[in-house]
Each structure stands twice: as structure tokens, then as C-alpha cells.
Design goal:
The complex is a heterodimer of chains A (about 300) and B (about 280). With about 300 residues, chain A is mainly alpha-helical. In chain A, about 40% of the residues are buried. Chain A has 14 helices and no strands. Chain A has a single domain, classed as MetI-like (MetI-like fold), CATH 1.10.3720. In chain B, α4 packs parallel to α7 and α8 runs antiparallel to α9. With about 280 residues, chain B is mainly alpha-helical. Chain B is about 70% helix and about 0% strand. Chain B is globular and about 75 Å long. Chain B contains twelve helices and no strands. Classes of the chains: A mainly alpha (about 300), B mainly alpha (about 280). At the A-B interface, α1, α2, α4, α5 and α6 of A face α1, α4, α5, α6 and α7 of B.
Chain lengths: ~300, ~280
């Protein structure tokens, strides 16, 4: 548009004809996305903070100061939910990282068929989480599901075992499904990092007589360490936020056995219409996530420094 | 030489890969087998691995049991498609700015975008509900599209930015020196070169948008005929009378569109997603 007319009359002088400075032009390009985020994410976030100081529900709202927070922090149940959330996060993330590392190492081996195997690990990530969970729901069925069926046939259990009906088994079942959803992405990133390692390093070590395990420990692991650290922390954030899996499998039950902070927030705000109390829970989550992110950035820059990434 | 395995090592590798793949694919396999079994074979306890009458009957009966199934699948594609189109409109200019230009608060504003990735819609549902209500968007397709776009913009900017950074600067600089304006350079020089990257990012956004259609749908939309597949199917799950074979058939048919797209483009998608993990 304007560009055509401007360029026609252009002489040798390059600076004078450009009306828009680089900074102004850049902000013009970024502004629409920024405005959208401001309305749909930033403003609701501020509104959540405000609501957390009220007793908002379907009937209206009144300022109650810190009452919601006092109630929350004084409740043993909330403390239990925080502990459960961290246990959920720790277990699930550890399993994803270990499986992801094992999976990436296997898929990185130079054997026929590896291109196909790499495609075959991705479906859990490609399909909608909710659809995968419907499959798991049936697998976990105590009377007719595959898992309980195998347990009965092999004599592991005497009769039907309703996996999702008991606090402990439901919790670990939800973890298995969460790991199933998260592992493909972790494997994929580890694999990409492994393939980025300079082959000369391996060849030099090999010539010196280093075995596979030695090469893995002394070359692969340190080389992919920055990716492992960033994946660990990103995965922690995603796992902390995991909602759909738990909601579809157990809705936070049985008797709260799978209620993590996210599920608790949803149940309070949307299930029981206690908007104010739900908002206070959301604020606690946001604060925790912000702390994570700070730790994340600190650790990442320390790791990058240590392993010589710019 | 270095990569050679003994037959025993090779066998071990294949066994380990098989175990890994069984974990990843078991639910799909079982969903498929379930979809082939007649109902009375499904409700046999203890579980029986073999049924003597496998059939594709569920694939025709499901359209009757879930009358809006076709609609749900179309909705899913429509919502994911709209989310993708809108997201790209926001992402392309912003990603270009972050890849190429220097401006005040560049890293701070990029940090704000990336911080959005730390939240899930679940913590913002109440105010988001009110925003959508004020805008009159509740119980419309927009109720699912608008939040979907917001939560995908950051990832889109991040992915496309790293792609754009790989395009050589010389072409732009040449056009710029020749007197083209910034906007002209962006439209006529950069965008055509960025088409492959935009396709990769667009498809990644589409898959993500297809995958995340549950929470916003069950919270912001009560209108059944607008529901996407996961939310639509969820209504039929968990009752004593759930026709599991038909649910599985419906679920498998419903994920077919994304699976096909993924299979055709997987090589590019994987490269695009993991660009940041590989050192240059």
C-alpha cells in the first residue's frame, strides 16, 4: 500500500523516507496479540485477585478482606490437597522424565524400523486428552476392563477390583494416565536433543575404547542436560495444571482422593458456585506457579552456564 | 561400526521398544477391540480376550445412539479451524517483530506472552465466564474459540519466531535498501518465504486446538448442537447403560481427522516443535 508510492520516489537517501520507526512498527505488529491476551487472560487474572477478597456467589458479592485466605490457610483439608498436588506432580513428572529418557534412548538406536517407532509413540499426544481418557476409563473398569481382567485371570485379585473406586488405586491410576499423555512430548524433545549432539564426540570416545554406557553417561547426558532441565520444569508446570484427566477419570474422587489444587478450585468455584473462595484458591495456584517459573529461570541459566550453552 | 549391535543387543532393543509401544498404544488397541465387540460380550466378567463375533456394527449404530455425532465432529473441526485461523492472524505479525525487529520492552513483553503458558483456563474460569457473558458470547461457538485462541497465541509466537529467525536476513535487507517500506517487505518478501513455517505452526495449533476442546466447552457452552466431540461424547459416558462399543467407535472416528493430518505432516511437525531443543 503505502510502500509502493514511497518506494517510487525513493532517492539515494535511505533514512528520511521511512515514516515509522522500527520500534513503533514492531509494537504495531505486537499490539493486536497483546490486546487480546490482555482482555482474555490478564484482566480475568486481576479480576480473580479482586474476587478472592469477596464472598462472591450466585447471589452477589461483598468485600470480606482476607477472610477467604484465612479460611483456606487454616484448613487442614487444603493443606492435604497441597501435599497431594505436590506428590502428584513429583511422581508424574519423575515417571515422565525416566520413561521419556528411556524411550528417547531406545528410539535413538540405529536399528531398522526406528522411523516408524518414532511415529507410533505420538498418538497419545495427538488425540484430544478427553478422548484418551474415555479409553482409560474403560480399561480401568473393575468388572469388564482389561486391567482388572488380567489381574483376575492371573490370580492377582480374587474378583473384580474397581480401580477408580478406592482412594489410593484411583490416584495411581490417574498418574498412569497422566504419564501416558505426557511421555510422548518428553521423549520427542529428548530425542531431538540427542540427535543434536555432535557425532564427533561419540566417535572420539569410541576410538578411545569407551563403551556404550560410558558414552551415554559421559557424553549424551551432559550434552542434553539443558533440555532435560527445561523439560522437567515445563512438565512440572503442565502436570500441576493437569485438570481434564482427573476430572474425566474420577472428578476428584473417591472421597477427594484425587483432588489436586486445580480440581479443588474448579469444584469450589464452578461446582459449588463459591466464586470468592474459588478465586482465593486460584490466586494461591498463580503464586505457586510464579515461584516455579522463577526457580525455572534461575536453574535454567545456571545449567546453561555449567554446560556451556550461550 | 560404532553403531553396530550384536544380535542379542538388537533383540533386547526390540523387546524394550515393544514394551514401550504397548504402553503408548494399548488404550487405542483396546478401544478398537471394544468397538468391534457386541454389547453382551463387553459385559462379561471376568474379562475375555477373544470374542467369537467381532463386527463393525457399532460403527453404524453409533449414529443413532449419539444423534448429534456428525455434528460434534464437524463442530470440533470448525472450532479448531477457527481457532487456528484467528491465532495465526495474531501470531504472524507478532512473531515477525520478535524474530527481526528491535523495540522497547521486547524481552519483557515476550516474557508476558510466555507467562500465559503457565496458566490453564481452569484458574480463570469465573472472570472469563463474566467477560464472555458481557461480550454476549456464552453458548456460542465463540465461547470456545476466543479462550482457545488466547491460550495458543504464546505457543504460536514462540514456534514461528524460531522458524523466522532461520530465514536469511539478506533478502529483507536488500528489499529495504531498495526502498521498500517495512510493511511491503513483510508482505512481499518475508511472508512468502515463511509459508512452510506458517503451515507447520498452523497445523501444530490446529492439533492443540482440537485436543483442548473439553474444559471451555463444558463450562461456557450449554448449547448441545455447538458441542465439540469430547464434550459431546462425555455426556454419554458413565451410566449403567453406556454403550461402550459405540462410544469407542465414535471416539476413534472422531480422532481420525487429526490422526490423518498428523501422519501426513509428522516429519515437519516434529522438526518444528523441537526446533528449540536442538543446538544450532
Amino acid at each position: 500500500m503505502a510502500g509502493n508510492t514511497e518506494s517510487n520516489g525513493a532517492g539515494p537517501v535511505k533514512v528520511a523516507r521511512r515514516g515509522l520507526s522500527e520500534g513503533a512498527f514492531a509494537w504495531l505488529l505486537v499490539a493486536p496479540a497483546m490486546a487480546f491476551i490482555a482482555v482474555i487472560v490478564a484482566w480475568p487474572l486481576l479480576e480473580t485477585v479482586r474476587l478472592s477478597f469477596t464472598n462472591a456467589d450466585l447471589g452477589g458479592e461483598e468485600w470480606v478482606g482476607l477472610a477467604n485466605y484465612e479460611k483456606l490457610l487454616g484448613s487442614a483439608k487444603f493443606f492435604e490437597i497441597i501435599l497431594r498436588t505436590f506428590w502428584w506432580m513429583f511422581l508424574s513428572v519423575s515417571l515422565k522424565l525416566v520413561l521419556g529418557l528411556v524411550g528417547a534412548t531406545l528410539l535413538n538406536a540405529a536399528i531398522p524400523g526406528r522411523a516408524l517407532f518414532r511415529v507410533l509413540i505420538m498418538p497419545p499426544w495427538v488425540i484430544p486428552v478427553a478422548i484418551g481418557c474415555i479409553g482409560w476409563l474403560w480399561l480401568y473398569n473393575g468388572y469388564f476392563g482389561l486391567i482388572s481382567g488380567v489381574a483376575m485371570r492371573t490370580g492377582l485379585t480374587d474378583g473384580p477390583f474397581e480401580i477408580l473406586a478406592y482412594k489410593t488405586s484411583a490416584f495411581y491410576a490417574a498418574i498412569v494416565t497422566d504419564v501416558w499423555v505426557g511421555t510422548p512430548m518428553v521423549s520427542l524433545f529428548f530425542l531431538a536433543a540427542m540427535q543434536g549432539v555432535n557425532r564427533d564426540l561419540y566417535e572420539a570416545a569410541w576410538v578411545d575404547g569407551a563403551g556404550r554406557w560410558y558414552r551415554f553417561r559421559r557424553i549424551t547426558l551432559p550434552q542434553i542436560m539443558p533440555v532435560m532441565v527445561s523439560m522437567a520444569l515445563l512438565s512440572a508446570i503442565w502436570t500441576f495444571n493437569s485438570f481434564e484427566i482427573i476430572w474425566i477419570l474420577t472428578q476428584g474422587g473417591p472421597r477427594g482422593g484425587t483432588t489436586t489444587m486445580i480440581v479443588d478450585t474448579y469444584k469450589t468455584a464452578i461446582g459449588n458456585f463459591k466464586f470468592g473462595e474459588g478465586a482465593a484458591r486460584a490466586v494461591v495456584i498463580v503464586v505457586l506457579l510464579a515461584v516455579f517459573s522463577l526457580i525455572y529461570l534461575r536453574v535454567l541459566s545456571a545449567v546453561n552456564k555449567r554446560y556451556g550453552v550461550k | 561400526m560404532m553403531d553396530r549391535y550384536s544380535p542379542l543387543q538388537k533383540a533386547g532393543l526390540y523387546v524394550a521398544i515393544a514394551v514401550f509401544l504397548i504402553f503408548m498404544l494399548l488404550p487405542f488397541f483396546e478401544m478398537f477391540m471394544t468397538s468391534l465387540r457386541p454389547m453382551d460380550h463387553l459385559f462379561r466378567s471376568p474379562y475375555q480376550f477373544w470374542s467369537d463375533s467381532f463386527s463393525f456394527e457399532a460403527y453404524s449404530k453409533m449414529w443413532v445412539t449419539v444423534p448429534l455425532l456428525g455434528r460434534y465432529i464437524v463442530n470440533s473441526i470448525f472450532i479448531a479451524g477457527s481457532v487456528t485461523a484467528l491465532t495465526m492472524i495474531f501470531v504472524v505479525p507478532a512473531a515477525y517483530a520478535y524474530a527481526r525487529l528491535d523495540f522497547p520492552f521486547k524481552s519483557a513483553s515476550l516474557g508476558i506472552f510466555l507467562a500465559v503458558n503457565m496458566f490453564t483456563g481452569a484458574v480463570l474460569l469465573i472472570p472469563l465466564y463474566r467477560v464472555l457473558n458481557t461480550l454476549g458470547l456464552l453458548n456460542t461457538y465463540w465461547a470456545m474459540i476466543v479462550p482457545g485462541v488466547a491460550f495458543l497465541i504464546p505457543t504460536g509466537i514462540w514456534l514461528l519466531r524460531s522458524y523466522l529467525e532461520k530465514i536469511p536476513r539478506e533478502l529483507e535487507e536488500a528489499a529495504f535498501v531498495d526502498g521498500a517500506s517495512r510493511l511491503y517487505t513483510l508482505r512481499r518478501v518475508v511472508l512468502p518465504l515463511a509459508v512452510p513455517g506458517m503451515i507447520v505452526v498452523g497445523v501444530s495449533v490446529f492439533i492443540a486446538a482440537y485436543a483442548q476442546q473439553f474444559l471451555f466447552a463444558i463450562t461456557f457452552n450449554q448449547e448441545r448442537s455447538y458441542q465439540p466431540l469430547p464434550a459431546g461424547l462425555f455426556e454419554f459416558i458413565g451410566y449403567q447403560t453406556t454403550t461402550w462399543n459405540e462410544m469407542m467407535a465414535a471416539a476413534l472416528v472422531g480422532v481420525l481427522p487429526v490422526m490423518v493430518i498428523f501422519l501426513f505432516l509428522q516429519k515437519y511437525l516434529v522438526a518444528g516443535l523441537t526446533a528449540g531443543a536442538v543446538k544450532e
